[in-house]
Fold this sequence. Notes:
This protein has 242 residues and is an alpha/beta fold.
Amino acid sequence: MCVYTSISIKNGMNTKILYVEDELFLGKIVRETMEDQGFDVAWETDGARVMNRFSTFSPDICVVDIMLPHIDGYSLCRQIRGLFPGMPIIFLTAKVETADLVKGFEAGGTDYIRKPFSIEELIVRIKNQLNLKNSNGYQSVAKENENSIGSYTFYSGRYELHAPSGVIKLSQRDMQILSMLCANRNRVTDRKELLLSVWGDDSFFNSRNLDVYIRKIRTLLSEDPSIEIQTIKGKGYLFIVG
């Protein structure tokens, strides 16, 4: 349950927020109240649908619940961080254990709010995170979306992979899969999580499509022998960058 009070000053100034919360009553209250304050809010209830929202909505900040259907908030934080290294991510949690909070920060969260919370607190934390983002010098969208992978540079926002031999244009799904692999660098990326994030379901047909895309990405990265995508049977893919 979210506790909030009336706020008389418009705070949002068209700030775009990606809000991920599966509690429908709470989500509706927060979205409507934040929109009343001038924020542009995209609300998503299912963790598996979040990453696809980035193709149509470019948020300034993400507010993510930890407990979500299909893909939890920790995994989403890692995926978002892989796609946008400079994105502020506030995670929401009903958990009180220090270990849970540490796990959230390790996953890529930049701040957290414990439930129940007030809208005033949420707005203050959003403004603080955006001020920190600006003061810490995420100089441009291009720079924010830059990710070094061995001798390659991956620009997720531009859908480009800069290889030693030249620039490679990527498809939406190329970009999403590579972003998730980057977010889990030197760690196993769960196959089902990939399927749910990119296609929205883990059907046999989409599973075969994923195999094709993984082979393609291996080929694109083959100019650097220190980069490897290992298939871990029954689990997913280990993205190794030497």
